[in-house]
Amino acid sequence: MKLINKSHVAKKMPARLAVNTICKGLFFLATLVGLLVLAILFYRIFTQGIGSLNVDFLQNFASRKPEEAGIKAALIGSIWLMVVVAPVSLLLGVGTAIYLEEYARKNWITTFIKVNISNLAGVPSIVFGLLGLTVFVRALALDRSILAAGLTMSLLVLPVIIVAAQEAIRAVPRDLREASFGMGATKWQTILKVVLPAAIPGILTGGILALSRAIGETAPLVVVGIPMFIAFLPQTVMDTFTVLPMQIYNWTSRPQEEFQQVAAAGIIVLLILLIFMNSIAVIIRNKFQKRY
Amino acid sequence: MNMTLTREKESPAIEIDNVGSAALTEKVYETSNLNLWYGENHALKNINLDMHQNEVTAIIGPSGCGKSTYIKTLNRMIELVPDVKTTGQIKYRNRNILDQSYKVEDLRTQVGMVFQKPNPFPKSIYENVVYGPKIHGIKNKKILDEIVEKSLKGAAIWDEVKDRLHENAYGLSGGQQQRLCIARCLAIEPDVILMDEPTSALDPISTLKIEELVQELKKDFSIIIVTHNMQQAARISDRTAFFLNGEVIEYSDTNTIFSNPNDKRTEDYITGRFG
Ligand SMILES: Nc1ncnc2c1ncn2[C@@H]1O[C@H](COP(=O)(O)OP(=O)(O)OP(=O)(O)O)[C@@H](O)[C@H]1O
Ligand SMILES: [Mg+2]
């Protein structure tokens, strides 16, 4: 006796196929909404800002006159910030992830720590600003320096990097580790030669997301006390500075219409910087995917 | 760089075998009263087994009887599993490896392992083979080149890959990957090679190649192989151990096990009546 009635199956078929098509359409629509908003945003910013975007804009300091206002200090400041945040957050983040995934015993304490790291990723950025103000600016007397701001930002993005790196490390197949251990490799050799190379694409994806967030954040820096208006370039990490999003915010809050255009030009510069950072990550990632 | 690893016999610990053909070979492994628990699960029960130099020792038995568990204790790979407890002794060349002062890294440079599923690294064929030697600190390019050629020849895969040494190992077929894994294992010039069902993921032709290879390799190495395939055990091994529910039911030379087993349960298993 047959348990499946073929004619019944055949009758259901058109409905199943229809649902399949409808779902495809719905998901496409969802994607379209995002793309559309992005396109409008780009259109608005570029039409507004492209006029102010020129060599002078990149070479001038901020000014009270919109036609003379430039982004030099903020652009260089953002790059300085990255110089601190990228190594600090990546080294600490990947190090923590390696410890938690490879070395730490699996018990309730490590589980507790892991859960809380994920929770930290959801803490409002302003809270990290307060932390930075208390610890770096005041207790460690780093003042409103690039270092103080950079360390604050590193803490802010650290949870994201740790979680991404943990995921990437966990995704490395177990049999690759076994192969390495089986030949007498130490744990560290295995991590260095097998686990990390295989995990690097994933780590970088998380890392670049985190750095993109750091480069666009303002709230923690406002709390730390980074100025919005500055007319000199920092010389060392102990100098004070300003960053692109703060400068942009400063311009958008001014009444003159011209400053809105200057702000739009600033946003374009920020976007270009982001794209540049992303492409570096993609290049590194491809290099590793080719080899591994 | 001599791959023949017949050891200097300082104290000729020669014994007359008490089972089957009287073989005059040195022991590599002596397991006595080994017990192993995964948490509460008593997976190995009072195992006593000796393994001999330049022989192929096969371990057979139904699924879940503890074959992999046992072979993984021989190079302490079992320690990767959390919450494992062992008692008893496993002597490798007269030193107890379960003693924690015996460094696993040290043990595993002597005892190589080939796994059930081919697990090459996602690197070039060349990099796969030199992985072990590099780990052990060999940097000289000429020596590494020689190791690559010798190991790949030893694993009977040289002719197939010699023109593509720098291509990714993932481009090889399953059978080729497994032979590459054997080559990678040979490259560390081990004394013993452990193989856990090395052909279970392979087609008959690749299986045959690996069986022939094992015959060849036993001239230079001692081999311990887990297999589900009874004919395979009969074809390639000198001695066979039959495991059941974590116990060794019978251990003797392969001819005896397959033609004249002592225990009823062994007979039932090899004639396919259970398992
Ligand atoms: N990592 C583990 N944690 C807990 N129990 C395990 C673990 N690995 C194996 N066991 C248990 O130990 C027993 C022996 O398992 P083992 O893998 O050694 O069997 P096997 O003989 O290799 O079987 P197969 O032929 O299917 O590979 C089984 O009861 C199994 O459930
Ligand atoms: Mg097994």
Describe this structure in words.
The complex is a heterodimer of chains A (292) and B (275). Chain A has 11 helices and no strands. Chain A has 292 residues and is mainly alpha-helical. The N and C termini of chain A lie far apart (53 Å). The relative contact order of chain A is 0.14. The mean pLDDT of chain A is 90. By secondary structure, chain B is an alpha/beta fold. In chain B, a hairpin with a 2-residue loop joins β1 and β2. In chain B, α3 runs parallel beside α6. The longest helix of chain B is centred in the middle third of the chain and has 14 residues. The radius of gyration of chain B is 18 Å and the shape is globular. The N terminus of chain B is likely disordered. Chains A and B meet through α7 and α8 of A and α2, α3 and α6 of B. Magnesium ion (MG) binds next to α1 of chain B.
Shape of chain B: globular
Radius of gyration of chain A: 25 Å
* Ligand species: adenosine-5'-triphosphate, magnesium ion
Percent range for β-strand residues of chain B:
15-25%
Oligomer: heterodimer
Summarize the structure.
Chain B: It comes from Peribacillus simplex. The complex is a heterodimer of chains A (292) and B (275). Chain A is mostly helical.
How would you describe this structure in keywords?
heterodimer, A: 292 residues, mainly alpha, 0% strand, B: 275 residues, alpha/beta, six-stranded mixed sheet, four-stranded antiparallel sheet, 10 helices, 24% strand, disordered N terminus, binds adenosine-5'-triphosphate, binds magnesium ion
